[in-house]
Amino acid sequence: MKPSFLAVLLALSACSLAPDYKPPDAPAPAAYKESGAWVEAKPADAVPHGAWWKIFQNPELDALEDQVTAANQNLKIALAQYDQAQATTREARAAYFPVVTGKAGEARERASRNVANKTGVETFNDFAMGADLSYEIDIWGRVRNTVAANADQAQASAADLAGVELSLHASLASTYFALRGADAAQGVLDRTVETDRKALALTRQRYAGGVAAEADVDQAETQLENAKTQATDKRLQRAQLEHALALLTGKAPADFSLPPAPLAAKPPRLDASLPSVLLERRPDIAAAERRAAAANAEIGVARAAWFPAFNLTAMLGLESATAVNWLKAPSNFWFFGPSAAMPLFEGGKIAALTDEARAAYDQAVASYRQTVLDAYGEVEDNLAALHKLEQEAETQKAATAATQRALAQAGDRYKGGLTTYLDVAVAQDNELQARLASVAIEVRRLNASVQLVKALGGGWEKETDAP
User: Fold this and answer.
1) Most buried in the list 73, 109, 280, 455, measured by CB within 10 Å?
2) Residue 121 falls within a domain, yes or no?
C-alpha cells in the first residue's frame, strides 16, 4: 500500500452521510392564554432551581422530598438506565480505536496426501504466537454517527432521569397535600359526628317529653350514622395516602407514619414566563429533542452501508514447527494491508434500513412536536385551574357562611317547635358538604400549584454541553 493511498483514506474519513441536524420547529405562542389579567402586576415567585418544593415553605414536606431523592426505587431505576446509556456511548466510542487481539497456540497437524504443491511433510507440529490488529477507517462516518446517536440517547436518558425525579417529587407533594386535606376533612367530620351525637341526645329528650315526634329521633340517628360513615371512610382515604407517601419515600407502609396536622400551606404565586422558555425548562421536551438528533444520526449510519467499508489489518508473530525454534528470529512473520468490502446484492435490505431510519426520524420529530404541544396544554390547564379555583374558594367561603346561618336558623325553628327535625338534618348536611367542599378546593389549589411547577419543568435547566 502506498502512503499516498492511506493519506487519501484518512482525508476522506472526515465525511458524514447524516443530514445536517437542527432542532425541529415547534409551535410557540407569544403568551399563555390562561395567564390572563388575573395574574398580579407585581413580580411573582419564580420556580427555584433544584428543590422547587421549598416555595410552599413547609419543613415537613421538605424532609419528605429529601427522602424521595435518597430512597425512591423508581428513581434508582431511572438512574441505572442513565448509567446504562452512558456505558453504551463509551462502548460505541471504542470503535475509534483499533482492536488488537493476542493469540498463542500449539497444534499437531496432518496434511492431505492429495494437496497441491505437496512439501512431502505429512504430519507436523505448529507452534504459533502473535497479535492481530484490525481498524475500520471511518470514511463515511458510520462510526462517528453511531457514537453521536448513542451520545444523543445518553443525553435523552439524562433528561428522562430528570423527568422521573420531577414527577416523583410532584407526586409526593400532591399526595402530601391530599393527606393534609384528608386531615382537615377528618376534623370537620369528627366535629360533625360530635354535634350530631349531641343533637340526637337532645332529640331523644324532646321525644321523651312529648315535644318531638319519633320520626325526629330516627332522622337525628340517621344523620349521626351517616356522619360516622363518612368519618370512617375519610380515615380509610388518609391511611391509603399515608401508604402512598411511604412507598414514594422508599419505605414499607408498616414502617412509616405521619401524625395528623392542619392544612396550613397556601398556593404560591408563580411566574409562568414565556412559552418559548418552556422548551428549555422541560426535561421531557429536551429528551424528545435529543431522540430526534439521535434518529438523524442513525440515518447517516444507514446510508453508510451503501458504500465500501475500508479496514486496515495487520498481524505480527512467531511460528515454528518445533518448540526449540519457536522464539527465534527466523520464526517471525508479519503482514499489513488495507481491505475493502461492499455489498453487491442484498435483496433491498440496505434500502429498507435507510427508509426505516428516515421513518424513525420522522416519528421522533412528530413525538417532539407533540411533547411541546402537551407541555403548553399542561401549563394552560393549571393556569386556568389556579385562576378558577381562586374564584371558587371565594364563592365557597360565602356559601359555607350561608349554610352556617341557615343551620342556626333551622335549629332555632326546630327548638321553637315550628319545624320537624328534617329541616335541621337538611341544613346540617348542606353545612357539612359546604365545609368539605372548602377543604377540597384548597387541596385542589395546592395540587394545581404543584402541577404547574411540574408543567414548567420544576426549575430544571437544559444542559448546553455538546455530546
Assistant:
1) 455
2) no
Read off the pLDDT of residues 30-88 as tens digits, 9 standing for 90 and up: 888 877 644 443 334 456 667 899 999 999 999 999 999 888 999 899 999 999 999 99
For residue 93, being part of any structural domain is answered with: yes
Instruction: Map grid coordinates 435518597 to a residue.
Output: 70
- In what helix (H) or strand (E) does residue 206 lie, and over which residues does it extend? helix 142-208
**Whole-number Cα distances in Å, 92 to 64, 95, 418:** 40, 6, 87
Q: In the prediction, which pLDDT does 466 show?
A: 41
What are the φ and ψ backbone dihedral angles of 344, each rounded to 5 degrees?
-105, -35
Q: Is residue 2 in a domain?
A: no
pTM of the full predicted structure? Answer: 0.84
Q: Distance between CA atoms of 180 and 265, rounded to whole angstroms?
A: 9
Exposed/middle/buried for residue 439 (C-beta within 10 Å: 0-12, 13-18, 19+):
buried
Domain contains 367: yes
Closest C-alpha to 188, from 445, 444, 435, 438 = 435
Q: Assign residue 190 the CATH number of its domain.
A: 1.20.1600.10
Number of folded domains in the chain? Answer: 1
Domain limits at 161? 14-97+138-307+342-455
What CA–CA distances, in Å, run from 201 to 207, 221, 428?
Answer: 10, 9, 16
User: Which secondary-structure segment (H or E) carries 285?
Assistant: helix 283-304
